[in-house]
Amino acid sequence: MSTRMSEAPENVRLIGGEMLLWSDASNMAGITDWRGAALELIRRMIPPSGRVLLVGPHPQLLVDDVVARAGTTAALLRSYPDACALGDRHPGLEVFCGRLEVFDADEPYDLVLALDGLLRTHSAEAPAAAWSESLGALTGLLAPGGRLVLGVRNDLGVDRFMEARPADRDGGDDQWAPHGFDPSYPGGPGALDGGLENAGLSILRCYAAYPCRQAPRALLAREALAFDLPEALTFPLSARGGDRMLVADPLRLTRLVFRHRLGEELAPLWLAVATRPGGAGEAAELPLGLIEEGSALHELTRSGTRRLPDGEERPVPAGRVVEEILVEACAREDVRAVREVLAELAAWVEESGDMSSATDSLVYDGERFAAIGPGRIPSRTPEPRVVLCRILWRFAVRLLAAGHHHPWPWPLEADQLTLTLCGMAGRPCGPGDLDLARKLDAELGQPAELAEHAPTYRDLLGARDRLADQLTAALARISRLETKLSYRERELVRAKAKLRRSQRKATAYRRTLGYRLSRRLARPRKVARRVIRLLSG
Known about the structure:
Elements: E1 12-16, H1 36-43, E2 51-55, H2 60-69, E3 72-77, H3 80-89, E4 94-98, E5 109-114, H4 131-139, E6 142-153, H5 158-162, H6 189-198, E7 202-210, E8 218-221, H7 222-225, H8 231-234, H9 250-259, E9 269-275, E10 289-293, E11 296-300, E12 305-307, E13 313-314, E14 320-321, H10 322-332, H11 335-352, E15 362-364, E16 369-371, H12 384-401, H13 414-424, H14 431-444, H15 457-510, H16 513-536
Parallel strand pairs: 1-4, 2-3, 2-5, 3-4, 5-6
Antiparallel strand pairs: 6-9, 7-8, 7-9, 8-10, 10-11, 11-12, 12-13, 14-15, 15-16
Helix pairs in contact: 10-11, 11-12, 12-13, 12-14
């Protein structure tokens, strides 16, 4: 990892406080992977002939794009190996290696990018400066009218409530200084605004980044978050990490965050765009929001979304996400509501012919269905029955993987539950249709979560509590039945004892002289009656 001082490229300058044997690039998992949304935002602010400064580590794709578009670009890194690698990759880039506090630029910059924040601008060679002090040093590098794009991680973001691992282990051994003891570090949007204003900056826009701090796919301005955003827009802003230990369902928590209009307060991180007074810096050119959907990028407008670069504006579909409707009905064991929604969904599939939709990518307003985003088109057109079977199979897999309650306890696998749901929709399917549905799902490139993935801890606790309640009710019923059975057994014992006493009395009575005489005297009378019946017959 180390590089000899004599091997440093000519465009790398040491300014003091550099870390000679340390590399931030060796732990890129702790660095935010900014992609399409952030790239589009930065491209709109890069001055063609201005000066741009990159502070701290950034993804290679972002650095290459900025260097290609800006007139003059410089970078400030604390890691000497990283600075040498960056200098070799971009010979025309001026790279400074050292601490932010000791950096003294010859000329101010028109745009300063610190999307990774200020925590990795410190050095182990000196005590870390407070966040406000680092922000002041960053502000001093801005020219009048210049812009600053600063990333700030939220210590109380929604991702902190769903991640089981401690937050201070995210960055590995680069966090030699404990985090959370700096009183100047912003603890919310208001504190962030105050810190920027105290540093002499004017806020142009503050974006909330979702769904997580590792790889944000959406930037939403606070002006957009102040309104009740449609579910078709907010539902995809939650992702389940494959290698993460989850405490709670990310989808459920994120939905509650937006439903209670806490999207800015509980965002995983903020991206603030501010300007230094003294020049022209208008916020009108900055978008309300940028959202990635696969390889497509959409801009949020006042009345809908517009696909970039030159797509037409279209309204965001209204209604609730179908998966949420079905999960809620299953939790209530409202089989009738499930049957009605599935019947409507089956009719819509046959009419529209949409082959790529799923319950997690459809919204329903009570009258019609609408797709949240366009999907891939398969090579062959499958039958509507197979398309519906795929939709319900994906829902069954996700329902069981999340550990949600449902009113069909007998299907232990997603395939059995899928066939049950198809029957409820009025479109019975067989194992052959199910195989075709799985092949269609694989062809569309949208694999459902595997059922063998463990549910989150809270879902497991909820399932355990549910099973404990059912077990308690079953044990109470067994106890009542055992009490009733014991009472019946005692009654039966008493009845048998009474019967035995009656039998003993009857036996003793038969042995008496009077009983035997009466029996012998009764025989002639019986014979006479028989003779009379025969003569009269």
